[in-house]
Design a protein that fits this description.
Length: 165
């Protein structure tokens, strides 16, 4: 179930992430294993996440592949390395909605959110290029902790897509 979309203001947010290029067929197999790797990287440095883990879609080519960052927000910027990239999620206006349900339903929830935005004539922070759609910030923020909520049908995910200025 998708909540009513709302426009929110988000401050800039430092984060660290592992970037992968995947196809739609591989996304469910590859990306879930990366959050523990980011967590271990933080733990080795005595750092803690400042909020829920996320997937940040940077480049999307539905017929080809997607560039996805699997990461966690931080309280302040840090240095990354060859495997874990440090970045800043940009501040700005975001269209946000909360999806409650199995993560397999996120594709339909995303389509619903995109359709809603189109009906309301909202414009994304996104450019179409030869490599696909390049997004300023398109986030799936995983609010549910699988160790505390094993029933995936009850998981809560916030979708937050940055709007154009």
């Amino acid at each position: 179930m998708l909540s009513e979309p709302t426009i929110i203001e988000r401050p800039e947010q430092p984060y660290v992430a592992i970037t992968e290029r995947v196809t739609m067929a591989d996304i469910g197999l590859i990306l879930p294993d990366l959050h523990p790797q980011v967590g271990a990287w933080l733990q080795e440095r005595g750092l803690r996440a400042h909020g829920a883990p996320f997937w940040k879609y940077d480049v999307i080519d539905m017929a080809g592949s997607m560039e996805v960052e699997v990461g966690v927000p931080l309280t302040s910027a840090v240095e990354g390395d060859e495997r874990v990239r440090a970045g800043i999620i940009p501040a700005g206006r975001y269209l946000s909605a909360t999806f409650t349900g199995h993560p397999m339903g996120l594709e339909n929830a995303t389509s619903t959110l995109l359709d809603w935005a189109s009906r309301h004539e909202l414009t994304w922070d996104m450019a179409r290029t030869d490599v696909g759609e390049v997004w300023g910030a398109r986030l799936e923020i995983y609010q549910s902790d699988p160790t505390l909520e094993p029933d995936m049908a009850k998981w809560v995910t916030e979708l937050a897509f940055r709007l154009a200025h």
